[in-house]
Amino acid sequence: MTWLVTGGAGYIGSHVVKALAHAGLSTVVVDDLSSGFRDFVGPEVPFVYGSILDGELLLKTIDDHDVTGVIHVAGYKYAGVSVQRPLHTYEQNVTGTAVLLAAMAEKNVDRIVFSSSAAVYGTPPTELVTEDTPKNPQSPYGESKLIGEWLLRDQGIAAGLRHTSLRYFNVVGSGDPALYDTSPHNLFPLVFAALKAGKTPRINGDDYDTPDGTNVRDYVHVADLATSHVAAALRLDAGEPLEAAYNLGSGDGNSVGDIMRTVAEVTGIAFEPVIAPRRPGDPARIVAAGDLAARDLDWAMRHDLREMVASAWEATRRAS
């Protein structure tokens, strides 16, 4: 019995693979290394180089490794860039998921944990997002993740697929100094890159209706996220019921100002961020409630902001 982790050589996927191994579950990784790194997958884990668009490769992988379940992390994850590359985004995230589900159906693999996104909500009408908050994605990326959830739902009805989707906002930190966030679009890598280049990080707006005037968002530690992916897999293996989707949220969030101050403390690099204009349409505060995930998926914020920043900074420094 083996869990296939698509995108298992990426930042989030590699943490999921390590968490699965820690739980004693066998894994195999499929990754095309478009944004992942072969070194992120330990030599003890079988690695298959290739795309989830390659149905024949998926069928062979399922057969060769006795795959009984899938944790689907692979995808094109850049929301902003997806506006310029909608067709690529839909191909990777929608067509890729459909190809994966078809291979699973052909081989009678009936359980999947889907790495979705809080981008399915767009700009929600309330500051605290629950699973019932209306879905209004505002980028091809968010739309593709919502369609992915629909594909799982419909395949569940048609073929008895057992599934759940995990939605989250900003994933940060490191659970292993060898694993780090390489995204050129995420806040932590952008701030660290600026500091290492001798530049000053910037904040987009400091006049919001928040305690320090800067945006408040959900930031969750990648290791906590991985733990809940494994919990979902274990419940599927045990035949226990799951909700169709869960938010992995903090319930209160952190401000961008908090992050900048913590970065300065952790790195020992004193700086005052440059205050840039607001970005159009940027809400003051968006955080997600994680109550359902806490009930079912061992979800908890086990790392505070300082631990998130410190672990991310250590991993980034080691990678330099």
Question: What would you note in describing this structure?
Answer:
There is one protein chain. The chain has 320 residues and is of the alpha/beta class. The protein has two domains: 2-171 and 219-247, Rossmann fold (3-Layer(aba) Sandwich), CATH 3.40.50.720; 173-218 and 250-287 and 302-319, Alpha-Beta Complex (UDP-galactose 4-epimerase, domain 1), CATH 3.90.25.10. The protein is 39% helix and 18% strand. The protein contains ten helices and 15 strands. The strands form four sheets. It has a seven-stranded parallel β-sheet, sandwiched between helices. A four-stranded mixed β-sheet has the order 6-15-10-13. Helix 1 (11-22) links the parallel strand 1 (2-6) and strand 2 (26-31). Helix 2 (55-64) packs across helix 4, helix 4 runs parallel beside helix 5 (140-159) and helix 8 packs across helix 10 (305-319). It is globular and about 55 Å long. The two termini are 38 Å apart. The model has no long low-confidence stretch (mean pLDDT 96).
